[in-house]
From TrEMBL:
InterPro entries in alphabetical order: G_CP_dom, NA-bd_OB-fold, P-loop_NTPase, Ribosome_biogen_GTPase_RsgA, RsgA_GTPase_dom, RsgA_N
Stated name of the protein: Small ribosomal subunit biogenesis GTPase RsgA
SUPFAM superfamilies to which the protein is assigned, alphabetical: Nucleic acid-binding proteins (SSF50249), P-loop containing nucleoside triphosphate hydrolases (SSF52540)
EC number(s) recorded for this UniProt protein: 3.6.1.-
Compartments it resides in: Cytoplasm
GO terms of biological process kind: ribosomal small subunit biogenesis
Residues the record lists as binding Zn(2+): C251, C256, H258, C264
Length: 303
């Protein structure tokens, strides 16, 4: 039997096998016994770079995994370059609390977020201007497009090339429609938005990296409408709001949480219009959640 080693990327794991993309070819791989004995389902994740021994045809065995740059828990994906936060501009209207919550999660994970505003074909110019104004000053790439009409997709295609991206956002935002537009022939299932609940039906059931012709790997994730904040302390939250960072350290009190304290540089920046009021209101909302979580934590344990 002719055997050779090569390196590739895990696309998905299913029924005890891992599907590894290497050199433009997909291999169905099993694990060496030493890995199976560990019993840890996070030893290998989609996105992991692995060394495989090609046994015969498209069959192989995973011999080792290379060090990870990062790792997401939900969805479980390794070596993520960026997360595309996909929201509809209309039908359903964007949930800005959820937008900011996902931005906090991306910042905490150290992964670059990209805002993708979908359904531009049915949105008012006022809504487009509103979303762009909200996030213009925090150095986040934004794309306004229509996946259904195939409009303004080129810039996003270029950003995906040769990178691993995770697509996240609420159901009904058009994530699957967007992936179908980026990779014609993919034919992912798409769901209609319920007129009763104003959200889409979940159409994505498992985590899998989808290879695009450009060399991009994209993970579609199940839609969701709520999400818990990461396990961080209230004192660390301001660091996850980029527009607050330049003002930190300029408050009267070193322990300032930028809530009601006098001579707070962040509050002064809000009042001067340097920080968007809505973003600051969401900061206060998240801050209160973290303070309450810390208060309810068992004695001796802090978030």
């Amino acid at each position: 039997m002719n055997q050779r080693e090569t390196e590739g990327t895990i696309i998905k794991g299913y029924s005890g096998f891992y599907y590894v993309l290497a050199g433009g070819r997909l291999y169905t791989c099993s694990l060496r016994g030493k890995f199976r004995l560990k019993g840890d389902d996070r030893v290998f994740l989609p996105g992991d770079q692995v060394r495989i021994c090609v046994m015969e045809g498209d069959k192989g065995v995973i011999e080792g995994v290379l060090p990870r740059r990062n790792e997401l828990l939900r969805p479980p994906v390794a070596n993520v370059d960026q997360v595309l936060l996909v929201f509809a501009l209309a039908a359903p209207d964007p949930d800005f609390v959820l937008v900011d919550r996902l931005l906090v999660l991306a910042a905490h994970a150290g992964i670059q977020p990209v805002l993708v505003w979908n359904k531009a074909d049915i949105a008012s110019p006022e809504r487009v201007a509103q979303v762009q104004a909200l996030y213009r000053d925090i150095s986040i790439a934004q794309f306004v497009l229509s996946a259904r009409q195939g409009e303004n997709l080129e810039g996003l295609k270029g950003l995906l090339e040769d990178r691993i991206s995770v697509v996240a956002g609420p159901s009904g935002a058009g994530k699957s429609t967007l992936l179908n537009a980026l990779a014609p022939g993919l034919s992912l299932k798409t769901g209609e938005v319920s007129a009763k609940i104003g959200r889409g039906r979940h159409t994505t059931r498992h985590v899998e990296l989808i290879p695009l012709a450009s060399g991009a790997l994209v993970a579609d994730t199940p839609g969701f409408s709520t999400l818990y904040l990461p396990d961080i302390s209230p004192q660390d939250l301001p660091e996850l709001f980029p527009e607050m960072v330049p003002h930190l350290g300029s408050c009267r009190f070193a322990s300032c949480l930028h809530k009601t304290e006098p001579d707070c540089a962040v509050i002064e920046a809000v009042e001067a219009g340097q920080i968007h009021r809505q973003r600051y209101d969401h900061y206060l909302m998240f801050l209160n959640e973290l303070i309450e979580r810390e208060r309810q934590a068992p004695k001796g344990r802090k978030s």
